[in-house]
Structure formats: structure tokens, C-alpha cells
């Protein structure tokens, strides 16, 4: 292992303790130093200090998605409905576009006749506007 400045090694350790992986650490070091270690060398520093495996609590903390307001994260899905499930035209296939706001858990659904990108996009925009209008929330 090529020896680097002790300051760089300490920074690698402190960034790892925050839960960063070797590639993220390399990008941080790239902006600060002219000479920075490669990802393999950073991993060797992890092993030297016993940080090559993240603890369960750090892994769980890294997985959390923290939302601070409505509309920050919305889950969208398009689903094909079975034929004959609607009373409109039993021989026609319909699609259901659903949205769920990750923060407030508000949900909205629209029934579509096709699943072309443009149709789905406008249905999603309409759903966003309906949620905003109906529940009076602002950015």
C-alpha cells in the first residue's frame, strides 16, 4: 500500500465512519487534494482500521429517505386492468395510473385508455394538480 499523508488517512477514516463507500470518499478527496488514493487503496485503509464492513446501524441510517414536506417524493405506477373489469367497454383494455405521496401518504388514481408516454405524463400532471387543489398544499 502506497503511503499517503496521515491527514488523508484520517479523513478517509472519518468519512467512512459517516457511512461513505470508497468511491464516494475518492470523489471527496479528488476535490480537496492534488494527489489522492485510488479506490483500492482506500479499501485497504478501511481494512487497516477494521472499517471494511459497515455496522448494521450505519447501513440502516444510509437507507433512510427523509422527507421534510409534501410532494418531495411521490411513488407512481401504471397497471393494466383486466378486460371486462370496467362497465364502460368490456372488450377494451384500460390502465390505472396511481400516485402516492411519500410524506403525507395521500393517494390518487386515474383510469387511462392507453399507456403511451404522453398520455401517462399528462395523467400524472393532472393528478398532481388535483391533489394540490383538493388538499390545498403548496411547495
SSE order and pairing:
Blueprint: H1 6-17, H2 22-32, H3 39-48, H4 56-63, E1 74-80, E2 95-101, E3 107-112, H5 117-135
Antiparallel strand pairs: 1-2, 2-3
Describe this protein's structure.
The protein has five helices and three strands. The chain has 139 residues and is an alpha+beta fold. It has two domains: 6-63, no CATH class; 74-135, no CATH class. Strands 1-2-3 form a three-stranded antiparallel β-sheet, covered by helices on one side. A hairpin with a 5-residue loop joins strand 2 and strand 3 (107-112). Helix 2 (22-32) crosses helix 3 (39-48). The longest helix is centred in the C-terminal third of the chain and has 19 residues, at 117-135. The protein is elongated, with a radius of gyration of 24 Å. It starts with 5 loop residues before the first helix and ends with a helix.
Compact summary:
This protein has helices spanning 6-17, 22-32, 39-48, 56-63, 117-135; strands spanning 74-80, 95-101, 107-112. The protein is an alpha+beta fold and 139 residues long.
Q: What attributes does this structure have?
A:
single chain, 139 residues, alpha+beta, 2 domains, 5 helices
Mean pLDDT: 84
Poorly predicted runs are none
Strand order of the largest sheet: 1-2-3
**Radius of gyration from the CA trace?**
24 Å
Main sheet overview: 3 strands, antiparallel
Give the proportion of residues in helices. 40-55%
Give the terminus-to-terminus CA distance: 51 Å
**N to C succession of SSEs:** HHHHEEEH
- Summed up, the domain count is 2
What is the number of E strands?
3
The geometry reads as elongated
> Helical region count?
5
Task: Kindly name the structural category.
Answer: alpha+beta
Strand content: 5-15%
Amino acid at each position: 500500500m502506497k503511503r499517503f499523508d496521515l491527514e488523508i488517512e484520517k479523513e478517509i477514516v472519518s468519512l467512512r465512519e459517516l457511512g461513505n463507500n470508497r468511491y464516494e470518499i475518492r470523489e471527496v478527496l479528488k476535490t480537496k487534494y492534488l494527489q489522492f488514493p485510488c479506490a483500492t487503496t482506500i479499501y485497504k485503509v478501511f481494512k487497516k482500521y477494521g472499517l471494511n464492513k459497515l455496522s448494521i446501524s450505519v447501513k440502516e441510517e444510509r437507507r433512510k429517505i427523509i422527507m421534510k414536506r409534501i410532494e418531495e417524493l411521490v411513488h407512481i405506477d401504471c397497471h393494466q386492468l383486466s378486460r371486462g373489469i370496467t362497465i364502460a367497454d368490456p372488450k377494451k383494455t384500460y390502465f390505472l395510473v396511481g400516485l402516492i405521496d411519500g410524506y403525507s401518504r395521500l393517494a390518487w388514481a386515474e383510469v387511462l385508455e392507453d399507456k403511451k408516454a404522453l398520455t401517462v405524463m399528462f395523467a400524472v400532471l393532472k393528478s398532481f394538480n388535483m391533489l394540490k387543489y383538493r388538499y390545498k398544499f403548496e411547495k
